[in-house]
Design brief:
Helices cover about 50% and strands about 15% of the residues. By secondary structure, the chain is an alpha/beta fold. Helix 1 packs parallel to helix 3 (about 80-95), helix 2 crosses helix 3 and helix 4 (about 115-120) packs across helix 5. It starts with a strand and ends in a 10-residue tail after the last helix.
C-alpha cells in the first residue's frame, strides 16, 4: 500500500490510483516512472481493455508536480531541469494521449498543474462535484510543462485557455465541462461507479476497433482533414483480416450479441 501508484484489475478494467494522499498525490519522479512502467505492462495485458486513473483519498486527484523535488532539478541547471522534469512529464501525458486502450480520469478532488494536464491528455474524464481544477504554474513564474500550453487551447480554444493559463485561477467542474476537459460531473459518491460503468460500456466492444478509433482520432486531430481521412482508412483496412470484424458482421446479421476475441 506504500507504492506511489496502486493497481487493481477486475472485469477487464485496470484501476490505477495515484497514492500519495499526504502530498495531495503530487507527481514526483518515482510516481511518474512507475506509472509509465505500469502503462507499458497493461498495454499488452489481454485481461485489460480499459484503464481508470484516480487519486487516493478524498482531497486530490493530483495537485501537480512535486515542487520540492523538481526545484532541485531547476537549481541543477537548464539541462537537468528539462531532462528530469519536462521530458518525464511530457512523456507521461503523451503516452496517455496516444495509448492503445482507453484511459478514463476519475477526478476526485484537486486537479492542479500536472493533474489537470493528465485530465487534458486522457481521452475521457469524469469529475466529482468536489473536484477543483487550476493551471497554477504562472504563480511559480513558469509555463505548464506537461503539455498544458498545447492541449488546453485545443480543447477550449485559444482565448479561454489563455485566461486560465495567464491567471492561474481555479475553476469548478462545471467550468471544466464547458471547457471540454471532462465528459461529465457526478456526485462524489458516484464517481468511481460512474467511471466503471463507462469503462464497462467500452470494454464489451472489440479491443481492435477501440484501438483503431483512438489512433484515428488522436493522430487526425493534428492533421489536415485529408490526411486524417487517410489515417481513418488505414485503421479500417488493418481490421479487415481480423476475426473481430468478421464476428461483428456475422453477429449483426444473425441478430445476436458478438463475442470479440481481440484478434
Amino acid at each position: 500500500m506504500n507504492a506511489p501508484v496502486l493497481l487493481k484489475i477486475d472485469d477487464k478494467i485496470a484501476t490505477l490510483t495515484l497514492n500519495r494522499p499526504d502530498k495531495l498525490n503530487a507527481l514526483n519522479y518515482q510516481t511518474v516512472d512507475l506509472l509509465l512502467a505500469m502503462l507499458d505492462e497493461l498495454e499488452v495485458d489481454s485481461r485489460v481493455h480499459v484503464l481508470i486513473v484516480t487519486g487516493a483519498g478524498d482531497r486530490a486527484f493530483s495537485a501537480g508536480a512535486d515542487i520540492r523535488e523538481f526545484s532541485e532539478s531547476v537549481r541543477s541547471g537548464r539541462a537537468a531541469a528539462v531532462r528530469d522534469f519536462v521530458r518525464r512529464g511530457q512523456q507521461m501525458t503523451a503516452r496517455m494521449e496516444a495509448y492503445r486502450k482507453p484511459i478514463i480520469a476519475a477526478v476526485n478532488g484537486y486537479a492542479f498543474g500536472g493533474g489537470c494536464e493528465i485530465t487534458e491528455a486522457v481521452p475521457l474524464a469524469i469529475a466529482s462535484e468536489r473536484a477543483l481544477f487550476a493551471k497554477p504554474e504562472i504563480r511559480l513564474g513558469m509555463p505548464p510543462t506537461f503539455g498544458g500550453t498545447q492541449r488546453l487551447p485545443r480543447l477550449s480554444g485559444r482565448k479561454r485557455a489563455l485566461q486560465l493559463l495567464l491567471t492561474g485561477e481555479r475553476f469548478e467542474p462545471q467550468r471544466a465541462l464547458q471547457e471540454g476537459l471532462i465528459n461529465r460531473v457526478v456526485p462524489h459518491a458516484e464517481l468511481m461507479p460512474a467511471a466503471r460503468e463507462l469503462a464497462s460500456r467500452i470494454a464489451c466492444h472489440s479491443p481492435l476497433a477501440v484501438a483503431a478509433i483512438l489512433a484515428a482520432v488522436t493522430r487526425g486531430l493534428n492533421m489536415a482533414i485529408g490526411e486524417g481521412l487517410q489515417v481513418e482508412s488505414e485503421q479500417f483496412a488493418s481490421l479487415v483480416p481480423s476475426r473481430d470484424l468478421c464476428e461483428g458482421l456475422d453477429a449483426w446479421m444473425q441478430r445476436r450479441e458478438p463475442v470479440f476475441c481481440g484478434h
